[in-house]
TrEMBL record:
It comes from Candidatus Woesebacteria bacterium GW2011_GWC2_31_9. Pfam families: RimK. Residues 108-297 form the ATP-grasp domain. GO terms for molecular function: ATP binding; ligase activity, forming carbon-nitrogen bonds; metal ion binding. The lineage of its organism: Bacteria, Candidatus Woeseibacteriota. InterPro entries: ATP-grasp (IPR011761), ATP-grasp_RimK-type (IPR013651). Keywords: ATP-binding, Nucleotide-binding. PANTHER family: BETA-CITRYLGLUTAMATE SYNTHASE B-RELATED (PTHR21621:SF0), RIBOSOMAL PROTEIN S6 MODIFICATION PROTEIN (PTHR21621). This is ATP-grasp domain-containing protein. One of its GO terms (cellular component) is cytoplasm.
C-alpha cells in the first residue's frame, strides 16, 4: 500500500478529521500519516542527506502533502530540494517557486547534496531539541557547535560541552539552531567570491571556546589579507562550488583546515559579506568596485 505524509504546522481537530477522511476513502490504495514540521529531523553529511519524520525517512513515502506550512515555509526550499533529489512527488510544486532560503539548515542541505565538505550537521526545530538531544549527542559527540540558522558573519555561535548546555542554550536564545561536529581548526580563511572567481583572501583570527558563546580571541585584531596563491587550488574550488550551489554572485566563504588531518571544511557562506570600506587596509572595496564595472560592461 502507498504511503502519504500529510505535513502541517500544527495538529488540530480539523487536520485529524481530514486525515481520517482520506484514509476512509482511499480505496485501499494508500494510507495517510499526519505529522508536524516539529517532527522533522535533518541528518546532513557530505554527500549523504536524510530528512526524517521522527524515525522514518521522507523517501519512504510515495507522496508528501503539505497541508499548511505556516512559519515553517522558509524551510520548504530545503525539503523540496531533498524530495526532488530522492524523486518523491509532493503537493504543491509551487513550493519550488518560493525561493531557496539562505538559512543555515537549508544551505547545509544544498551543499551536502552537492558533496561539498561540511561538518556533520543535525537540525530539528526548537520545540523538539530536548527530545532529540540524545540523538544529536550520539551522532556528533561532545563538544558540539550550535549555530543560529538565520545568523550571518559568525554571530550566535555556541559550544556545548555537556548535556546541560542544551538547556542553557535554549534559555539563552529563542532562535532555531543547527548542531555541528566540532572541527579543531588550524587555519581559517575567508574567500571573497565575486562573480566566478576568488578576488580576496583573508586569514581569520583564532576562535575562543572557553565560554559557551564562541567568539574570535581578539575581535579588534586587524584583518590579515593574503596573496591569493596562499591557499591551494582545492580550497578555491570548494569556495567557488559552494557559491555556485547557493546561486550567489557575491559571497564570503569561510573555510577551515582541520588540525592534524589537513581536511578542508566549509564553515559558512555569507550572502552579504562585510566589506571594509578602507582601501588602505583592505583590498575588498577595490575588488568589489572592479567587479561592478565588469558587470556593467557586460550588460
Amino acid at each position: 500500500m502507498k504511503k502519504i505524509l500529510v505535513l502541517v504546522d500544527s495538529i488540530s481537530q480539523n487536520k485529524k478529521k481530514l486525515t481520517r477522511f482520506l484514509n476512509a476513502n482511499s480505496l485501499n490504495e494508500y494510507r495517510a500519516y499526519l505529522h508536524t514540521f516539529s517532527d522533522l529531523f535533518f541528518e546532513i553529511k557530505t554527500g549523504k542527506v536524510k530528512i526524517k519524520v521522527k524515525t522514518t525517512d521522507l523517501s519512504n513515502f510515495d507522496l508528501v502533502f503539505v497541508r499548511r506550512a505556516g512559519k515553517y515555509v522558509r524551510f520548504m526550499g530545503a525539503i523540496t530540494k531533498y524530495l526532488d533529489n530522492k524523486k518523491i512527488n509532493f503537493v504543491d510544486p509551487a513550493f519550488r517557486e518560493i525561493g531557496m532560503s539562505m538559512d543555515k539548515a537549508s544551505s547545509s542541505v544544498r551543499l551536502a547534496i552537492k558533496k561539498i565538505p561540511i561538518p556533520d550537521t543535525y537540525f530539528c526545530f526548537k520545540a523538539s531539541i530536548l527530545k532529540n538531544r540524545d540523538r544529536i549527542i550520539k551522532g556528533l559527540g561532545f563538544p558540539i557547535i550550535a549555530k543560529a540558522v538565520l545568523s550571518q558573519r559568525n554571530q550566535n555561535i555556541f559550544i556545548l560541552k555537556n548535556t546541560t548546555d542544551f538547556k542553557k542554550l535554549l534559555k539563552r536564545s529563542d532562535k532555531e539552531f543547527i548542531f555541528q561536529k566540532f572541527i579543531d581548526i588550524e587555519f581559517e580563511y575567508r574567500l571573497l567570491i565575486l562573480g566566478k572567481s576568488v578576488r580576496v583572501l583573508e586569514q581569520k583570527s583564532k576562535r575562543n571556546y572557553k565560554k559557551i558563546k564562541v567568539e574570535y580571541q581578539d575581535i579588534n585584531e586587524p584583518s590579515v589579507f593574503l596573496n591569493l596563491d596562499t591557499v591551494c587550488d582545492t580550497t578555491n574550488k570548494i569556495a567557488l562550488k559552494a557559491a555556485k550551489t547557493l546561486e550567489l554572485d557575491v559571497a564570503g566563504v569561510d573555510l577551515a583546515i582541520e588540525k592534524g588531518t589537513g581536511k578542508r571544511y566549509l564553515i559558512e557562506v555569507n550572502k552579504g559579506p562585510g566589506i571594509v570600506p578602507d582601501t588602505k587596509t583592505s583590498p575588498e572595496l577595490k575588488a568589489f568596485s572592479d567587479y561592478l564595472i565588469q558587470k556593467i560592461r557586460l550588460n
